[in-house]
Amino acid sequence: PPRRALPAIMSCKNMLRAAVVAALAASRVALAVVQDVRVAAGECSMTIPTGSDTYFPEQKQVHADAMLAKLFTVTYAPTFKVLTDSLSKEQYVLTQCGQVQPSAAAVNAVEVLKTGYIRKHFGVPVQSSAARSSVLLAFIDSLGVQDRVKFVDSYATAPCWQKALACDAEMEPSYGNVTLHAEQLAGVDVVFMSCGTDGDCTNVNTQKNGVHVPSTQEAGPVESAEYIKYIAAFFNLEPLANELFAATQTSYTQASSGKSATPPLVAWINYN
Fold first, then answer.
1. Are 165 and 146 in contact (CB under 8 A)?
2. How does pLDDT run across 150-192, given as a tens digit for each residue?
């Protein structure tokens, strides 16, 4: 009887193996369909640039103004861009969807990884993200990529974010349900976050998909406003970011000099 049972056991193993193979095949098909959709939408391309070709020509680039934001830089290559944050000591390699992730040597040829810095890789444009701080949500709003944010900070106030919070998009705090918090962080491509209040960036450094956004650590409001370029790099929206920042800078300059045609109305409100 044991020998007669052996074929049945082997059959079960074969069935399990077949099920795994089928699942993997279905997964590949699903990924291929998603990839095709993104190619059709103009977000992905399998074409390898040759010669002077690039996915990021000058008109599709952003650069931190040397007189303004001091904590980040962006450098471009034909198929990827390198964003460096000096506060958290992290370097983000953003590779165009459909292109091969560059080697360490290829990245170093564009932007050397400084001693003590951490390098992280992401595909762009980003498909899903989480915002652990409400500060950067204004940039997300301006760029029109609210649909790419899966979880938001509970203190978000804009109408779109309030609607999202009512639809289970609230970011679980780190001191809350630890399991749910970890699942949320792991369930997105990018987690936009801040370092600790004491300047310790261990929380960012140890989060594999964590991206530090130091907009509030700059010297002034215009410098902070320039971080729309920083966020835009993750969504390939640099031209829009340049346009929006230029308008903000002009408006700020006019308001500060008293030349604004429409002076800003400011209200101080206290809610208890």
1. no
2. 999 999 999 999 999 999 999 999 899 999 999 999 999 999 9
Q: What is the pLDDT of residue 114?
A: 97
* Phi/psi of residue 52, nearest 5 degrees: -95, 5
CA–CA dist 201, 207 (Å, integer) = 10
Structure tokens at 85: 């944050």
Answer yes or no: pTM beyond 0.70.
yes
φ/ψ region of 116 (left if φ > 0, alpha if ψ in -120 to 50, else beta) reads left
Cα–Cα distance, 239 to 133 (Å, whole number): 25
Answer yes or no: is pLDDT of 74 > 70.
yes
In 174-206, which positions are buried (b, 16+ CB within 10 angstroms) versus exposed (e)?
eeeeeeebeebbeebbbbbbbbeeeeebebbbe
Q: E strands within the chain?
A: 72-76, 80-85, 90-96, 118-124, 129-131, 149-152, 190-193, 210-212
- Measured from the Cβ of residue 19, the count of other Cβ atoms closer than 10 Å reads 10
Q: What is the pLDDT of residue 40?
A: 74
Length of the chain: 272
3-state SS record for 187-237 = CCCEEEECCCCCCCCHHHHCCCCEEECCHHHCCCHHHHHCHHHHHHHHHCC
Examine residue 125 and say whether the peptide bond preceding it is cis (omega within 30 degrees of 0). Answer: yes
